[in-house]
Structure formats: structure tokens, C-alpha cells
Design a protein that fits this description.
- This protein has 407 residues and is of the alpha/beta class.
- It has two domains: 308 residues, TIM Barrel (Alpha-Beta Barrel), CATH 3.20.20; 65 residues.
- Strands 8-6-4-3-2-1-10-9 form an eight-stranded parallel β-sheet. Strands 5-7 form a two-stranded antiparallel sheet.
- Helix 2 runs parallel beside helix 4 and helix 5 runs parallel beside helix 6.
- It is globular.
- The two termini are 20 Å apart.
- Bound molecules: 5-thio-alpha-D-glucopyranose and manganese (II) ion (2 copies).
- 5-thio-alpha-D-glucopyranose (GLT) binds next to strand 4.
Amino acid sequence: MLPDQFTPKKEDHFTFGLWTVGNRGRDPFGDAVRPPITPVHVVKKLSELGAYGVNLHDNDLVPFGASATEQEKIVREFKVALKDNDMKVPMATVNLFYHPIFRDGAFTSNDPKVRAFAIQKTLRAIDLGIDLGANIFVLWGGREGVEADVSKCALEALKWYREGINYLTGYVKDQKLDLKFALEAKPNEPRGDIYLATTGHMLAFIQTLDHPEIVGVNPEVAHEQMSGLNFYHGIAQAIDAGKLFHIDLNDQKPGRYDQDLRFGSESIKPMFHLVRLLEESKYQGMRHFDAHAYRSEDEEGVWNFALGCMRTYNVLKFKAAQFAADEEIQALKREIASEYGKDEYQLHKYSSGNATKLKNASFDVDALAGRGAGYERLDQMLTELLLGIRGGISSAKQSEHASAASR
Ligand code: GLT
Ligand code: MN
Ligand code: MN
């Protein structure tokens, strides 16, 4: 494919997990379909495609049970590959779900020895992440849940979960590490039910921790959409709380298992709103993709998948700029807003004076209730813009916004 304005660039800050492009297509019904790709090769290929960096679990790089000497060699070679390819590791995480020891949870296992092992493994993964330059540490509690609630008390499990995270933030503070945690929610899969099922649950839980200032969220598109939730709304809430430390971009069809599809491959309009929000709110974090290629693909399909994730982000960013520059759309938005008039009751701030005024005000309820909003026209304009057939902005303006979007 020839380079164009949507070709990914380092400045776009796109990252992928080693486990994403490295996904071998295993599922509960079938074995791997692709041979392994080494982390060094992933770094080289992703850099060629324009990515900024790679993220990893401890065991994506260093196999479970490797000796200190083996680890040292693997990390040394990996660092050379990062340097040669101008790639960074902005985020690290820990695998607390694959090994059978975590069959009944990690931080929330009923067994205090398993909980201790989980914390030990995480401390070591933090050290590895710091060594590679990461400043975000993701915690996804994939096994922190149950099949049968008779197995443990949910209140007790939450207490252990909190203690685990407090231990880790205690370590980071004590060692003066430049590292923040980002908690990732998921409602179910692989457990029947997973504790702290959504980003909203996580945001509330964070406020109960010892060091909430260094703990935020890492929402994933597929995980919220699995519960039928509006991801754009969840992200707005996380931004509003100052807690959007990281994001897992992918896609998902409703009512399915966690599909981790190529970003924007299904939910074009919701992902348009998401990208517009991230860009307009000046989100500073990485644009991380936690997705994988269809099982039907070979390695070439994997790189097409990775390029597709990044290109779609840039296309949606361009569409957000087009939306902002579309005179007809903006005029309709102004018209809708002006029909609503001013906030004459000063609702943004309570005072006894304005409360008295409000209590005595009279409203033309029938007129207010009877008015149509105009959103059908507005949303159709957006649909046509996304489908590429709106000619509402001049070609000079289009190229102005195209170059703004590609900067
Ligand atoms: C696993 C999971 C993802 C998490 C990763 C981080 S691991 O692939 O499905 O959603 O983000 O632990
Ligand atoms: Mn994820
Ligand atoms: Mn997922």
C-alpha cells in the first residue's frame, strides 16, 4: 500500500501488546494456527508499520520459570531490538491468569499462599517494566472472580483485591518509581463472573485505595461492549475523573464472547465518537491496540490487521476534523443550541437566591414537551459524513484539516 495521509507515524503514539500480534489463533475449540513470532521480530515489523512501541506481560517476553541468567539474556537482546528500531515500552503488565496456580484467582484466591505468589510475581513484573522504561502498569484481573458464589465471600474478595493493590502502590511509592497503575475491567470470561465488572466499578473502587492518585483505569472497548455498555460514555467518565491512564482499543459485536477484533472493524459510529473525544480532550496517553487478527489469517494477515487498526484510528481522527469543519453540521448544531436558549436559572451553581427564583419560576411545560429536537437530521449528516458522501466542506478546507489530522 502506498503511503498516504493515514499512514501511521511514530508521533501518533500507536502501541500493541506483544500478545496481540503474537496471538496464535488458539481458542477453546481449536489449536494454534500460526507459528510463534519472536518478540524481536514483532518489534521490527511494528516499527516498520509506524508504531511507537510495544507493551508486554512478564511472560510474553520471559517464559514462566526462566532462570535469572535466561531472563538477563532475553531482556538484553530485546533492548537491542527496541533501540535498533526506535521502539518504546510505555506499558507493562503481569500475567496472573494463564498458569494453573491462578485457577481460583490471584489477588482474590482463597489461598493466602497463592495471593502471596501473585503479589511476588507482580513485584517482579514491575521491576521488569521499569527496566524497559514503562511508566504505566496495567492490572487485568482475568481470574479474579468465581463460577460459584458459594466458593467465596464477595466482600472478603474485594478486601483481598484492595490489599493486593495497596501492597503494590506501597512498593512503587517506597521505591520512588515513576509508575502509575491502570485497572482493566471485564464482566466475565475466563471466569463466570469477574469482580469489578466495568470501568465504572473500577472508578469507584479506586477511591477506596491507599494511594488513589497513582491508580487509574485502562478501559477496553470489547469489555464494556460485552455488557452492552456505551464505551464512549465510560471513557468520558474516566476522563472527567482524571483517571484515563491508558486505553485498550479493539472492537466487538454485541452479545458475543470477547472477540478483540481489529479496531473500528464493527462499530464505526461509536468509535468515531470515541476518537473525537480522545482527540478533542487532548488525551495524552498511548493509543494502544489490544486486539488480534482473525483465526483465518497467516502472518501476512497479522500485519494487515495491525496496519488496519492504526489506519482506521487516523481515518476517524480525520473524520472528527471534517465534522468540526463541516459548516452545515456546525450550523445545525448552533441552531439546535440557540433554540434551547440561555441558562437563565444559573444551574451551574446553587445559591439560596437562585433557588428561590427557580422555585417561583413558571415553565411552559406543554411547549417544552412538544418540541422536536432535530437529531434525526444531525445524525444522518454524521452517517453520510462517515460514509464519505458529504460534500459540505470545500476541498481547500478538507486538505487543511487532512494535514492537521496527520500532524
Ligand atoms: C489478555 C486480556 C486483555 C488484557 C491483557 C492485559 S491480557 O489478553 O484479554 O484484555 O488487556 O493483561
Ligand atoms: Mn485488554
Ligand atoms: Mn478483550
